[in-house]
């Protein structure tokens, strides 16, 4: 095919280019099977219900209890139950303050279940 | 092959054609991967979302009981009351209604009897207590989904309320 004159050389070259284009489209079709599964899987495995549950219990506890010892015991209890049942490690730290004569706590929670890491600071939980 | 110019493009064309053929065979064979509903855990997710939603509904206080003594008692949720009073019948009727209710008119009572559950309470000293539903030693099947929720029990303790749901 390779000759010293120029006959049909463009034809051959464009043939190669078109086959490269078809190759690229085949790669896209092949990867489309996996891409939908892995994207949906990462959304499905996010522990939304667990995190919302722990967060709501922390806020309820901080709002309803005023003694530090009780708060520490309850937060320790939440940590243990989460580790035992939901197989996740959480760390809860709290600090107190007063503003305009009202007591409040700032509570930070850190959640890690091995696949998801969640950190939130919940400020100004007022209690009386 | 290199000293003269004869047949070099012929050779290259042959190599390129063989590469294209190999790639085509690879894509044809690899493209037959099929993901079924079981692989993607669609039914498991459906049960898990349903269980989480039911526990959320039952663990929300419906009224603010301003006549109660402590602040914790003022916001007590139905689930916490049933656990404290050990009232598994009330829990069973409420949970069953929410779990099995279906919109298919031809099922008498409107409850889909193929869904079953087991409710277990896990205490903070590591012990557990069967609370309601079908005893799990007897009937639990594969593809069982477990959902759990923290509930306050007593004034100073937390327990985990776990429900395992499966389809018969």
Structure write-up:
The complex is a heterodimer of chains A (128) and B (168). Chain A has helices at residues 9-44, 48-64, 68-86, and strands at residues 89-99, 102-112, 117-127. Chain A has 128 residues and is an alpha+beta fold. In chain A, strand 1 and strand 2 form a beta hairpin. The mean pLDDT of chain A is 88. Chain B is α+β, with helices and mostly antiparallel strands and 168 residues long. Chain B is built from six helices and four strands. Chain B has helices spanning 8-30, 42-58, 71-74, 78-85, 88-100, 136-139; strands at residues 115-122, 128-133, 145-153, 157-167. A four-stranded antiparallel β-sheet of chain B has the order 2-1-4-3. In chain B, helix 2 packs across helix 5 (88-100). The longest helix of chain B has 23 residues, at 8-30. The model of chain B has no long low-confidence stretch (mean pLDDT 84). The chains are: A alpha+beta (128), B alpha+beta (168).
Descriptors:
heterodimer, A: 128 residues, alpha+beta, 3 helices, 3 strands, rod-shaped, B: alpha+beta, four-stranded antiparallel sheet
Topology:
The complex is a heterodimer of chains A (128) and B (168).
Chain A: H1 9-44, H2 48-64, H3 68-86, E1 89-99, E2 102-112, E3 117-127
Antiparallel strand pairs in A: 1-2, 2-3
Helix pairs in contact in A: 2-3
Chain B: H1 8-30, H2 42-58, H3 71-74, H4 78-85, H5 88-100, E1 115-122, E2 128-133, H6 136-139, E3 145-153, E4 157-167
């Amino acid at each position: 095919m390779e000759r010293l004159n120029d006959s049909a050389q463009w034809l051959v070259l464009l043939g190669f280019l078109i086959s490269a284009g078809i190759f690229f489209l085949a790669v896209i079709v092949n990867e489309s099977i996996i891409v939908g599964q892995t994207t949906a899987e990462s959304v499905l495995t996010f522990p939304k219900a667990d995190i919302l549950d722990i967060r709501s219990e922390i806020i309820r506890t901080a709002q309803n209890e005023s003694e530090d010892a009780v708060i520490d015991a309850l937060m320790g209890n939440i940590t243990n139950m989460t580790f035992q049942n939901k197989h996740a490690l959480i760390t809860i730290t709290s600090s107190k303050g007063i503003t305009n004569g009202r007591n409040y706590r700032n509570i930070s929670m850190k959640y890690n279940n091995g696949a998801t890491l969640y950190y939130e600071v919940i400020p100004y939980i007022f209690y009386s | 092959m290199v000293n003269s110019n004869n047949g070099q493009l012929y050779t290259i064309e042959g190599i390129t054609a063989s590469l294209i053929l190999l790639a085509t065979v690879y894509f044809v064979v690899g493209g037959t991967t099929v993901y079924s509903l079981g692989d993607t855990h669609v039914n498991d997710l459906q049960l898990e979302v349903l269980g989480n939603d039911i526990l959320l509904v039952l663990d929300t206080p419906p009224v603010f009981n301003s006549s109660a003594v402590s602040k914790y008692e003022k916001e007590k949720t139905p689930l916490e009351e049933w656990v404290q009073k050990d009232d598994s019948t009330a829990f069973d009727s409420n949970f069953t209604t929410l779990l099995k209710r279906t919109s298919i008119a031809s099922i008498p009572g409107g409850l889909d009897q193929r869904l079953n559950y087991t409710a277990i309470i896990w205490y903070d000293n590591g012990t557990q207590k069967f609370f309601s539903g079908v005893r799990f030693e007897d009937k639990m099947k594969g593809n069982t989904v477990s959902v759990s929720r923290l509930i306050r029990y007593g004034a100073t303790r937390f327990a985990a309320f776990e429900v395992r749901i499966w389809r018969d």
